[in-house]
């Protein structure tokens, strides 16, 4: 391609208006850079529109269903069974998402980012085409995120993906979810709580393979107790439409009928048709853009952050990565550039019911990294105070992993109510290198679930 194309000049061209792209664009513009951003869909990306935010809102909604059941144990008399107005919930969610979309646009307009509501693609290493116009960019940031991945099978067109679930109509009475990752598990808990009969099909022997073995086993048991039909080592060979319902052909010759089938079988990077090959940008075998520790691609002035890259796929990580890029390109006088995130101690949550919170290494990872005999494990399992009266059998599980040679806490895991809120605070301590001695010297807040993390004293010998 011609490397001397005429076009409007910018210091940074951002392709993608999700969390990482918007953060990079507005912060670069605020530092005086000429910035353009191209995004066809609503601002905020997956997280705001069909991911973190609507998922958490629906998780809250599902939680109210559980709370109504628990209330009688605390003396409340419910005169009639509560009823979910699915349409009202969807409308309320849509209103909140629209509000957030507007805020994102204002964040871009404030510092003067040129907004292009068009699809953009690279024509060469410095030229971007968007809306029939050419843009000459000194630097380019690819922040196009990811999309649901559906494996090819007969009848796959009869299934939906996670993006569709927030407006599905009607609310399915019988929902089959295919997959065992965090999206599958979260959707199972949400729609089970909203009143659907949920069956979860996982081809492997475990749910949540990337998580600690004790965590994934414990949460699977709790989800089963809540009424979710979990079927492991199960594969689908085909989906058929039979009148008004879906019929799934399973690998053992069985069939399963449902009102809706959700394929929660992973995500793929949004890297197609971006012209990456024309610019010389390398991708891995899954299509993710290969980046180095500073998020540079194989072309030094082209960067990639977030789910489209080969790094960790979490919204707060994309935000942190975006600021590393901005600091490298447009440094603030007198301030040291930000370092790349410490991926070893990135906290995360899974909004199942009960929820998961985790930070650091799984037990298998810790033994591989620090030595099989160099890890001390502390575990506790108990019924939370709330459920001593609620009538529910839900239990809580907590786990600490400690490196013997340094006494550092290298893994912290929890299944229980508000696990994400609890683990977020401990993540600060773990990032600072907290030791088990620090935990032991910390006074707990009583009575709370969180205090159990600072009162575990006896190692698990099993």
From TrEMBL:
Broad EC category: oxidoreductase
Enzyme Commission number(s) from the entry: 1.8.1.7
Family matches, as Pfam families: Pyr_redox_2, Pyr_redox_dim
InterPro entries the record matches: FAD/NAD-bd_sf, FAD/NAD-binding_dom, FAD/NAD-linked_Rdtase_dimer_sf, GSHR/TRXR-like, Pyr_nuc-diS_OxRdtase, Pyr_nucl-diS_OxRdtase_dimer, Pyr_OxRdtase_I_AS
Presence of keyword Coiled coil: no
All copies of domain FAD/NAD(P)-binding, residue ranges: 11-322
Keywords: Disulfide bond, FAD, Flavoprotein, Oxidoreductase, Redox-active center
PROSITE patterns: PYRIDINE_REDOX_1
SUPFAM superfamilies: FAD/NAD(P)-binding domain (SSF51905), FAD/NAD-linked reductases, dimerisation (C-terminal) domain (SSF55424)
The organism's place on the tree of life at top rank: Bacteria
A GO term, aspect molecular function: glutathione-disulfide reductase (NADPH) activity
Transmembrane segments: none
Pyridine nucleotide-disulphide oxidoreductase dimerisation domain boundaries: 346-456
UniProt entry tagged with the keyword Disulfide bond: yes
Family statement drawn from the similarity comment of this UniProt entry: Belongs to the class-I pyridine nucleotide-disulfide oxidoreductase family.
Protein's UniProt name: Glutathione-disulfide reductase
Gene: gorA
């Amino acid at each position: 391609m011609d490397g001397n194309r005429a076009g409007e000049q910018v210091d940074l061209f951002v392709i993608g208006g999700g969390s990482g792209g918007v953060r990079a664009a507005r912060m670069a513009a605020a530092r005086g850079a000429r910035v353009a951003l191209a995004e066809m869909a609503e601002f905020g990306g997956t997280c705001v529109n069909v991911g973190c935010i609507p998922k958490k809102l629906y998780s809250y909604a599902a939680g109210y269903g559980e709370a109504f059941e628990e209330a009688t144990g605390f003396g409340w008399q419910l005169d009639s069974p509560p009823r979910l107005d699915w349409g009202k919930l969807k409308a309320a969610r849509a209103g909140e998402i629209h509000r957030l979309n507007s805020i994102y646009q204002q964040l871009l307009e404030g510092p003067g980012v040129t907004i292009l509501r068009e699809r953009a693609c690279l024509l060469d290493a410095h030229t971007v085409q968007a809306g029939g116009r050419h843009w000459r960019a000194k630097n380019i940031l690819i922040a196009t995120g990811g999309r649901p991945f559906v494996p090819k099978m007969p009848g796959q067109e009869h299934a939906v993906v996670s993006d569709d679930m927030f407006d599905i109509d009607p609310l399915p009475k019988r929902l089959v979810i295919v997959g065992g990752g965090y999206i599958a598990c979260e959707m199972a808990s949400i729609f089970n709580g909203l009143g659907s009969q949920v069956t979860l099909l996982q081809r492997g022997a475990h749910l949540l393979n990337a998580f600690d073995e004790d965590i994934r086993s414990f949460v699977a048991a709790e989800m089963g107790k809540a009424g979710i039909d979990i079927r492991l080592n199960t594969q689908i060979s085909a989906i058929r439409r039979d009148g008004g319902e879906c019929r799934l052909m399973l690998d053992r010759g069985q069939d399963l009928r449902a009102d809706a089938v959700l394929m929660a079988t992973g995500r793929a990077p949004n890297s197609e048709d971006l012209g990456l090959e024309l610019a010389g940008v390398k991708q891995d075998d899954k299509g993710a853009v290969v980046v180095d520790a500073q998020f540079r691609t194989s072309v030094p002035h082209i960067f990639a952050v977030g789910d489209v890259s080969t790094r960790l796929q979490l919204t707060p990580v994309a935000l942190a990565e975006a600021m590393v890029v901005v600091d490298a390109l447009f440094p603030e006088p007198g301030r040291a550039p930000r370092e790349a995130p410490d991926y070893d101690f990135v906290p995360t949550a899974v909004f199942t019911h009960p929820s998961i919170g985790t930070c650091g290494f799984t037990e298998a990872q810790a033994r591989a990294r620090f030595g099989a005999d160099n890890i001390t494990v502390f575990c506790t399992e108990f019924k939370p105070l709330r459920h001593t009266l609620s009538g529910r059998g839900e239990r809580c599980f907590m786990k600490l992993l400690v490196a013997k040679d340094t006494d550092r806490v290298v893994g912290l895991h929890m299944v229980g109510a508000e696990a994400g809120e609890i683990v977020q605070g401990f993540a600060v301590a773990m990032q600072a290198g907290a030791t088990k001695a620090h935990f032991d010297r910390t006074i707990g807040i009583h009575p709370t679930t969180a205090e159990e993390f600072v009162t575990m004293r006896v190692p698990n010998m099993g």
